[in-house]
Amino acid sequence: MAPKDNKEGNDMNRNRLLNAELAHAIAAMGHGDLMIVCDAGFPIPSSAWRIDLAISPDVPDLETVLAPIAASFIAERVGYADTLPVHNAPLLAKLKRLFPDADFETTKHETILGEMAAKAKVIVRTGAFDPWGNILLYSGVDVPAWFSKPGVVAPDYYAKKMKG
Amino acid sequence: MAPKDNKEGNDMNRNRLLNAELAHAIAAMGHGDLMIVCDAGFPIPSSAWRIDLAISPDVPDLETVLAPIAASFIAERVGYADTLPVHNAPLLAKLKRLFPDADFETTKHETILGEMAAKAKVIVRTGAFDPWGNILLYSGVDVPAWFSKPGVVAPDYYAKKMKG
Amino acid sequence: MAPKDNKEGNDMNRNRLLNAELAHAIAAMGHGDLMIVCDAGFPIPSSAWRIDLAISPDVPDLETVLAPIAASFIAERVGYADTLPVHNAPLLAKLKRLFPDADFETTKHETILGEMAAKAKVIVRTGAFDPWGNILLYSGVDVPAWFSKPGVVAPDYYAKKMKG
Amino acid sequence: MAPKDNKEGNDMNRNRLLNAELAHAIAAMGHGDLMIVCDAGFPIPSSAWRIDLAISPDVPDLETVLAPIAASFIAERVGYADTLPVHNAPLLAKLKRLFPDADFETTKHETILGEMAAKAKVIVRTGAFDPWGNILLYSGVDVPAWFSKPGVVAPDYYAKKMKG
Amino acid sequence: MAPKDNKEGNDMNRNRLLNAELAHAIAAMGHGDLMIVCDAGFPIPSSAWRIDLAISPDVPDLETVLAPIAASFIAERVGYADTLPVHNAPLLAKLKRLFPDADFETTKHETILGEMAAKAKVIVRTGAFDPWGNILLYSGVDVPAWFSKPGVVAPDYYAKKMKG
Amino acid sequence: MAPKDNKEGNDMNRNRLLNAELAHAIAAMGHGDLMIVCDAGFPIPSSAWRIDLAISPDVPDLETVLAPIAASFIAERVGYADTLPVHNAPLLAKLKRLFPDADFETTKHETILGEMAAKAKVIVRTGAFDPWGNILLYSGVDVPAWFSKPGVVAPDYYAKKMKG
Amino acid sequence: MAPKDNKEGNDMNRNRLLNAELAHAIAAMGHGDLMIVCDAGFPIPSSAWRIDLAISPDVPDLETVLAPIAASFIAERVGYADTLPVHNAPLLAKLKRLFPDADFETTKHETILGEMAAKAKVIVRTGAFDPWGNILLYSGVDVPAWFSKPGVVAPDYYAKKMKG
Amino acid sequence: MAPKDNKEGNDMNRNRLLNAELAHAIAAMGHGDLMIVCDAGFPIPSSAWRIDLAISPDVPDLETVLAPIAASFIAERVGYADTLPVHNAPLLAKLKRLFPDADFETTKHETILGEMAAKAKVIVRTGAFDPWGNILLYSGVDVPAWFSKPGVVAPDYYAKKMKG
Amino acid sequence: MAPKDNKEGNDMNRNRLLNAELAHAIAAMGHGDLMIVCDAGFPIPSSAWRIDLAISPDVPDLETVLAPIAASFIAERVGYADTLPVHNAPLLAKLKRLFPDADFETTKHETILGEMAAKAKVIVRTGAFDPWGNILLYSGVDVPAWFSKPGVVAPDYYAKKMKG
Amino acid sequence: MAPKDNKEGNDMNRNRLLNAELAHAIAAMGHGDLMIVCDAGFPIPSSAWRIDLAISPDVPDLETVLAPIAASFIAERVGYADTLPVHNAPLLAKLKRLFPDADFETTKHETILGEMAAKAKVIVRTGAFDPWGNILLYSGVDVPAWFSKPGVVAPDYYAKKMKG
């Protein structure tokens, strides 16, 4: 890994996403589309668009992959397994730090493995050995950029985002 | 963008469609087939024929892409989200100017995202940051060219188009 | 195109690259790799990776496509046809504004059509009706980010970039 | 074939190119790219982009296919076999009528079969039983549209086209 | 098109099918398989095997394409839209001439667009601007060749074909 | 195999080519293109278009495959190995019967294995256990059909074919 | 075809399967998998694995193709159309000779065309003009080889095969 | 096979998995994903990811293939046909030795052929002539590695594995 | 591996080739085509047709894979590295036993890695840890079957094979 | 990244390679084949087998990717740019620690970009911002495992490895 002192020095750079296929996937996502960033053990369906970034156990971990994604992708909602608060609280805490503006919602673990894995536009595998470490990112939009044109009337549920 | 003075000077040229894949798609559409021209945030299904013309926010906008399409494609019907009249009236006004001869119809936004996106023969993505900016174009035919042969009897609903 | 008043308002956004395939291509380029951004009439070899953004004559023009690329891609060198200074001076002027830090070099027009078109990693077609409007972008690196680690010694030709 | 009376009635329509793949090919051609429109017996290389429009002997003939191409494609130069003037003068006469503004040039028949067939971007097969009926169309540009911007200086060889 | 005098002179040749992909399709059809030969405006499903022979309006027309097919393909049944007798009687008359030995049946226009288009093994597009000009050809067998071997007993419905 | 008595009875049918891919290949061949019909042991290059009709030793033999090809394909020239007259005279005799109008030429066996196998548009494998049983068929044209139009002047070497 | 005297001489060879794709298909079949060997007119679904061995009418016939398959493939069950005993008794007689050890069963003709064609792992087309000439071969196993290991207990229905 | 004396000498090596595609498949499996290692006669669906390691009867046998898989793959559960205990007890005994830590479960033979074959991520074919020799391996995780981080709470059913 | 006693019992079966892709490759080889059966460490070119049968070190070894190939493939010549006699004499001895009728020839090890690997039609990888264990099999023909027809004259170099 | 304390705790696990495609690539490499593990800026040829593991600047760095590769891949030789000792000495030091048993050699930087990039079987991209950070790994063999069989004579240059 990059030496500690370096990490502080160019935080801005750390967030620049380098992976070519991941850059493609993010640019291809529309409003409401689902990306799953998962741990090393997630059973990714054969029919999914799979981007495998796993190297070795816990390398890269979820935070390492989620951080640059969070910087170039507007996650309107972030979903996680209903077992996470009890069984992997440290991971949940990291998530809340990485996506301060997102709505959070829990999903049953079985639903993530089944319905959500089938629905995801892309599934990004990390090397994380993190139980229930499968994070659902729902693509949002840059609200002020979309609702500021003359004549465009934002619906109520975007009103507060416009003010903020 | 092309300098202002140039725009006026060769309006005829502006309408000539240059994009190779879009030219293919238009020539491949049959009577009643659906093309969706969408904003930058439309969740395009992975299985769709996707033509991505988006460059940067609002470039190209919907009008820029719709204008040359309108010139080489007969849209019998034009569909738009039921929320458009209230929430994005300026866009609706542009649509009516671009397709003066088409029938207009509203579709529920959820239906466009689901059933219509699945049914579309091709989905053309613009860079528009235009809420509900997803336009449904249903391919028509050149009525006089199709119904003027000796012995061919036009049905009632094409009668007025023949006279006009 | 986007209305004037909007353009000023979110200049920052205008530079964000939306096109999914172009985002992939840029992220896939290595140091020294060549991207050609060309006018609508460039004879793109059948074997090339072709990204066709042309819509109608002069839409989008070269500047519209080059601007967001310039914002997310470090062009170490920028090449253009040797005929450009005499025959299309306005385009050359735009180029110098878009890439203030790049080295510029001229290439014979025939060499661009032959050797360079064959060598390019990706060719991006605009709608520009701009004679000799075929721009060669050679990928560079973020010099300070690459040469600031302890023990790394920058070669002379990068020395000045480090100071700047 | 369409009845005689109809042919006269909508000449304008006859020229509208309907074929989807051919529309794609024409839109994909750049300045100087070569399209070969050939008779039914041309030995098309296996590696070529082949568009087979042949139906039965002499249907469609070369003129039927060349006419709508001529209407949507600017052929700067038109090439034909050096044997054509002596051995198939009627075909040559048709060519000159179809492309009144093009430069004409002869090519050795062997060169068409070998070097030119390998170089062509696309080869369109007709049903013509027309000896040496293999026509080379070199893509041109709309000279006034390309050279009329302020600051653009046309080279001498385009000067007369600008005036015309 | 081929000059009139020529048409008479080699009628035999006119029927020889030249198109390579169409020759493949015909040879691949089994007893009861469906081929649709359609007008230029038929909405061909994206999943269909599509052979696009359309050139320009009414070129080639349905008769031009059906004639050589009729000569190399045994159509046991020929289907057409139930609206054809009233709205396009001339086309129906041509059909009866082209397939003198076939059984004819009408199908609802909506069924052709939906169920039949999905079921067709191949769909051949002509340039015809002929309302309801979508003809269903069901592959038959050469009855005498199939039922004349010693010990083979033809079913009743083939009996008359054996005698004729 | 079909019973003897049947063979006599519908000789006409025996010649009708049923194989779908072979029908495609024949329709795709142009003047001078090369088809090789080979014995079961011919070393077909991996890059060739290979149609494998071999079933078991000597089934089908060369004559069985060549007969229907000869009926639907005009072979201008027929090539065979220079060793054939001495080492497999019976096969040469069959060839002369099957292609009564063709020119015959010998080619060195090594040239057939190397240069000719690489050049062939398609290679059709039979089950023949026939030494040097690799026949080269060069596609010709129907001379009278091609040279009878008014104004078309046949070259000398086709003159005699026109008369015949 | 191979001369008569030769046929007797190397019967053993005649059974060696030469076709590369058919060899692959047979080796890929598991216990209970279905292969259909069909006449020239069987409507093979577009989605099937199709091996087209048809050459001309009745060449090769069903026996010619079934014989080498029977020699390298253990057919546990052989299915045929319920109409075969009455309408094509000679073919049924051949089948019984070719597969002396198989169980035979009849299937409704409609079921073969529909459900069985969809279920078949591979469909092999012959040139047979044989009504209802579509044979269903269900892959079996070499019973003694599979059940003779110490500790392996054959079920009752394989008991008699072990003794035989 | 490798000589006996060698087998003892480098047991460690024997377990290193060499097959490239199998290495890929194992690394691609997530928690709960199913791999089937089957005998030579298993009817593998055409749509499956098939890795064919069969060479000749009983070579390689199931143990030979399962041993190196067992060494690099954590099988949480191992499934086998309900008929195995009675009809092929020696194979069941081997399984228990190869996967000492797994849970075992029986599945109806019909379910393995149908539902399980469709669900398997990959099916590995051995040469085994072993009745009911189709083994279901469900991918597990390295429990101590996944549940030892601070703040992670293992569920009850993994508790004992943590202690062990 | 299969138990010893079984090996003796069905030697005939052991030689039956089960692998589907290998069966395809052998059936696709023509006279003189080259198959390489290699050890686990052979650098197989990326462009080769690669059949990977390696499981674990020395499993399967070369003999295990060569034996069933030898039984279904006539190797006219067998090549091996010039270093084999000195450095791996036991392997050479096995080869001579497996191919008693073949001609043997040595090839420089470098030539096998370069020219021969590029020329091979298929490369079959075993698990053998056998230095220089890369065997070249050149496909031959069944001489008596090919040269016994009336009128066929075998060349001198096949004369002795005819007698034997 | 994984928390510090965890890193120490399961060093063994850290080395287990998780990436599915990389596992495939390593298992597919033969003796002498070249893998390049490169920094984020290496110009990877379009024709290469590219495995892109780059996430963000310096994540993962070269060491992070090289460590698990070193654990499952025997690198006989390790190559690096001739500029490395002077310009990036820290990276060279890491390399020597990671591959203690390999031979090291320098290659000119230009040769790595050209000849070596074209020759590499696979190129693995890291996120490293490390000048000249392109490492050449030449696949070796496990010498004792390959040369210990009776009758196998190791060449001199492997002699010392046998003893060690």
TrEMBL record, chains A, B, C, D, E, F, G, H, I, J:
Q: InterPro entries of this UniProt entry?
A: D-ribose_pyranase, RbsD-like_sf, RbsD_FucU
A single MF term (Gene Ontology): monosaccharide binding
Keyword terms: Carbohydrate metabolism, Cytoplasm, Isomerase
Which example biological process does GO assign this protein?
D-ribose catabolic process
Q: Recorded E.C. number(s)?
A: 5.4.99.62
Task: Identify the SUPFAM superfamilies for this entry.
Answer: RbsD-like
Q: Which GO cellular component terms, listed alphabetically, does the Swiss-Prot or TrEMBL entry include? A: cytosol
* Catalysed transformations (reactions): beta-D-ribopyranose = beta-D-ribofuranose
Q: What is this protein called?
A: D-ribose pyranase
